[in-house]
């Protein structure tokens, strides 16, 4: 049964204190310390089960397998993504819970082909809005963003208040080389589409092969789905 804690606000002074402390910690220590600073029921972890999602999920499975992992099922994922989700769930003993858009709203985007006309609106309906309902219950939201992935992500801090939730990016200052070394050392499985040239994987309509995030929303200035803005 899912335990719900009272959502609380984190002050700017507390955020500064957390950043000062966590900058000095290694990856496992950061996740261990998270459960000293926050109750399990206050922590929301999301995963897209994309190219190298095994990195963050392996770390959490090492520290706390009771952590619930939310997966936003947009209805437009590659079949390989759903297979990869099941593989990592079994491999790391994850507790995964899917969240989706309202049936009628998702069906509207199907009939309208909204991803072609207004990809921001399509992401809002199928990603942002469903997760907003979940976010309302939690104090801190964990995700695996890294600075080198985009200009926007380079502007972030390990902890920061975004709207009405505290964001925690434990991998933020990990370099691409450090990530690749961790993957090699622990023999983490890649998403099956990586070997076909996909390096950042989202919905099938809006993802094509490309280096890092260049294959997302191809031929469109859009670089983020809106979840992390």
What are its keywords?
alpha/beta; 229 residues; 6 strands
List the helices and strands and how they pair.
Layout (H helix, E strand, L loop, with lengths): L11 H11 L4 H11 L5 E4 L7 H10 L4 E5 L6 H14 L2 E5 L3 H10 L1 H4 L1 H17 L4 E3 L8 H4 L4 E4 L2 E4 L7 H10 L44
Helix pairs in contact: 2-3
Give an overview in words.
By secondary structure, the protein is of the alpha/beta class. It is built from nine helices and six strands. Strands 3-2-1-4-6-5 form a six-stranded mixed β-sheet. Helix 2 (about 25-35) crosses helix 3. The two termini are about 30 Å apart. About 30% of the residues are buried. Residues about 220-225 have low confidence and may be disordered.
Compact overview of the structure:
With 229 residues, the chain is α/β, with parallel strands linked by helices.
How would you write the strand order of the largest sheet? 3-2-1-4-6-5
- Along the chain, the helix and strand elements come as HHEHEHEHHHEHEEH
Gross geometry: globular
Q: Tell me the major beta sheet.
A: 6 strands, mixed
SS-based class: alpha/beta
Strand content: 5-15%
Average the pLDDT over all residues and give the rounded result: 87
Gyration radius, rounded = 17 Å
> How many beta-strand segments?
6
The total count of helices amounts to 9
Alpha-carbon distance between the termini?
31 Å
User: Helix share of residues?
Assistant: 25-40%
Enumerate the spans where pLDDT stays under 50 for 5 or more consecutive residues: 221-226
